[in-house]
Amino acid sequence: MDIEPTPIEETEETVMPPTEKIFILKCSVCGTQTGTLALPIEHPVDVETAHHSELGFDDIRCDDHP
Amino acid sequence: MSIVNGNQGSAADFPSTSSGAADSGKVPKLDSNGKLPLGFNYLHFGGTGADGALNVTSGTTTISAASAAQLVKNYTSINVSSGATLAFSTPAATGTAIFLKSLGNVTIAGTVTVAGMGGQGGAGSTGGSPTTNVGNNGIIPSFIKTLAGTVPSGASGGTAGAQTTTLTFSQALSTTIQEFLKYAFLWCGPGGSTGSYATSGSTITLGSGGNGGGCLVIECGGAYNFTGTISAAGTVGGNTTGTGGSGYCTSGAGGGTGGLIMYWYNVLTANSGTYTVSGGLGGSGAAAGTAQQGQNGGSSGGNLVNTGNSVGSVGNGVPASGAAGAAGLAFGGLNTNFT
Question: What is the dihedral of CA B236, B130, B96, B183, to 10 degrees?
């Protein structure tokens, strides 16, 4: 008996929704990146526009602006 | 949005972790085991992770305590790279207890500091008859209250703060009790007192007392890899400048007393870093133009492990430095108490 090959079904690639969003820690004087804060995606802060004070940071300084 | 009677709910109304006030009116979503996710359990060892993953790679990142007696940060992981610093500012006048919680790994190759985050030192002042001020006692959510010393008066030195005392139960419960339920015996260092002078003089400036070291609790739900520095030191007392009338000496302020560091982890990778809980040095006084009576320096407070310091009588014409703050305490280890 001939065995017919089972056709491979084309499926759409599953895209997982993001689980976090990245707030960039930047020097308040020159804007140099000094680190990151990866927030849960549910966090209410808009990481693109938020000031660091909205996340409880008093100040952020790079090594050149202590 | 929150759930409203008569309206259709959406997936966003059923969060799997809490983001604080923004989630008011929503309903917790159970996990795959049918249990409440950790994000809703504020007393879970390692916290909730609601504040995300903190990664400080350079410079100094400073978190404000906003004058609160207690600051709790709930991270999923913490990394402070070599050369980078995580610092804290704006403590309550009587000090702030800081809880750094991490669901996962804590890696500290750089510096984490709560130095000076305890009871604040007596405020300095300037003028012909500047005001002398005692430092603040250390009072954070706990049963323990640390005691500041007194200011010197004339040629009599200030009295050192006693080791500790306890709050009454009602006083303890008047503070935020969330972490107090887990850690009943936390404390921070009290502040140092200002120095003094014998008679008024137009040029006298009394330096402020040093600030006590803060209280830092680290809960690491993952692997603890500590090769850097963590400090809960007291800060130095201020110098007193100028001379009192008729050439009298002046005396320096007392240093802040060292605070407390507690660290607990579920897995240990390394614990070879340096914990610093030293008290701050006392400030210096100023000599008179002619040999006159000396002034004893400002005192420092005590904490759970040490009494404070005072400066004994000094000779005529000798300016006295303030007393150094007593050392604090750092301890911790494998978590066997909390889930």
Answer: 90
